[in-house]
Amino acid sequence: MDIGKNKVDKYEGYKNYVNLLMDDYRKDFDKIEVYVIGSSKLNTSEKNNCLLQVLDTFLSAQEEEKSVIQVTGPDLKRYCDDMIYGERIYIYKSSRIFFILLGTLFYTAYMQVFPRIFDAIKLGDMRVIFKTINFGIADIILMLAYICIPEIISFVTKSQFENPRRCRRIKRYTYYAIWIITIMIYSFIKDNDKSSLMIMSFSKVSLILLYLGLINFVILFLMKVLERGSMEEEKEAREEKYLDKLNTQYQMHVERRKRSNKEPLEFESFKAKRVRNNFFTIAMFSIYLLIFLLLAVLIGRGMYIQNSIDVLGIIFLFIIALLSILMTVSIRFFVLINKSLS
Fold this sequence. Notes:
The protein is mainly α. The chain is built from eleven helices and four strands; from the N terminus they run E-E-H-H-H-H-H-E-H-H-E-H-H-H-H. The protein has helices at residues 23-37, 44-63, 68-72, 76-85, 89-123, 137-157, 164-192, 202-229, 232-259, 267-306, 311-341, and strands spanning 2-3, 6-7, 133-135, 198-200. Helix 1 (23-37) runs antiparallel to helix 2 (44-63), helix 1 crosses helix 4 (76-85) and helix 5 (89-123) runs antiparallel to helix 6 (137-157). It is flat.
């Protein structure tokens, strides 16, 4: 990375160039530095690399006499998150959405089922737990609270993100305050309003929970894989290993051609052929992934219509989830390899 006439060879070198930043650039970089260093998503090497990229961008923009807001945009926290997560930002957001959906239904079902446990103990009849679940206005309020909590906390802490300790404290107090108020409203409405907006069987609610749980598991697993795959050391090692393998295969190709008295392909032509083969592999794996997802939908739909949770069906869903992860990781691997070969 070039900074003026100087060249930085190590990640830790970014601190030697911070003093080159002026005014607003220095203020915003200090905020970004605190936020990135306090992140649990990156290791030390990745944090320094991230800050090095930010510093490079800031110095280039400063030389071009751009304002800092032209570089970061109006939301400095979003700029930091984009730098931290990179290509993983969309998967991270997807995981949050599915986690919220799962948590919403889980807490709503929990508030419905938990009191039944005491009723079952008091009546001596465990069948009370598995009766149909009635969703009313109180449950809608509970769902809305759970969905809104992340957005409310994000709004409240947006201006404090550069101070991790204060930010965590505000998050904690805001979280508990919203939940206490929500539970009070929920309990009051539940005691005074017995009407039902929707009635669902216990097995259907459990099946929806299972589906959301599997989806969340797949996304979280992919996030972990992508976190490892996006590390510079991992990328370099993967590409180097693949290129070594490609060179070995090319040497074998040359030897086979010589034995057959045929002209071997040029290395660039051989590489272009491998890129085409990889495209075909990506297309096939994408088709397999769609088939697996279709099977998951059909199995789940069958159990939902029959109003029963089949053990074999659950096992198949779990296997399909693992295969979907494998296909997705493989597709991403070949896409990245093709980028490096092109």
